[in-house]
Every structure is written in C-alpha cells, then in structure tokens.
Amino acid sequence: MAAYVIFDAPPGGDLEAMKPYREKAWDTLVPYGGRPIVRTGDIEVREVRRDKSWTPTRLLIIEFPTLAAARAWHESPEYQALLPLRLNARGPDNMLIVGGVAD
Fold first, then answer.
1. Are the beta carbons of 52 and 5 closer than 8 angstroms?
2. What is the pTM of this model?
3. How many separate domains does the chain show?
4. Per the domain annotation, does 24 fall within a domain?
5. How far apart are CA 63 and CA 69, in angstroms?
6. Residue 51: inside a domain, yes or no?
C-alpha cells in the first residue's frame, strides 16, 4: 500500500542557504522508491476549521511504495544529513507521513 509524505512549506527563508538542500534532497528519495507527485502553491482551501488555523500556501506530496519506505527515507542518514540545511535556512515546515488506502 502506498504512503505519502506531505510537506506544508510556505515560501520564504534564505533561498541561497536552501540551495545545497534543494540540489541533493530529490536524490535521497530514489533508494526508497519516493517520487514527488504534487508540488504547488495553487491551492484552494474549501473547508477549514472555524478558527482558520490551517492556511497552507505551498504543498509538496511525495509518494512512496510503503509506509515503511517513507519512514526509512525520513530516518535515513542521507536525508537526516540534509535536514539541518533546510531547518537553518527556513525553519521547520509542517510534515506528515500517512498511509494510503488498501487496494
């Protein structure tokens, strides 16, 4: 069953400092079967909590073949080595790992 990593990543931060992360992050997906399927800022929020506490501005969704593969990617030495680059350049983003629907 497929699984998904979902980033709610608002624009901003130090773009120059993000460059090393952007250049290498996609390559870390390959050994775990990850592939980006959504990368957009074209978002229409149709339903939201009354307190309007969720206002996504840019989403990235990465598909993995299994939940175990998604977790293994996030915990991998390759990705963990890059993570401080992103955190230092822009701070933390909201990120979820979710399992898909069984066939």
1. no
2. 0.86
3. 1
4. yes
5. 10
6. no
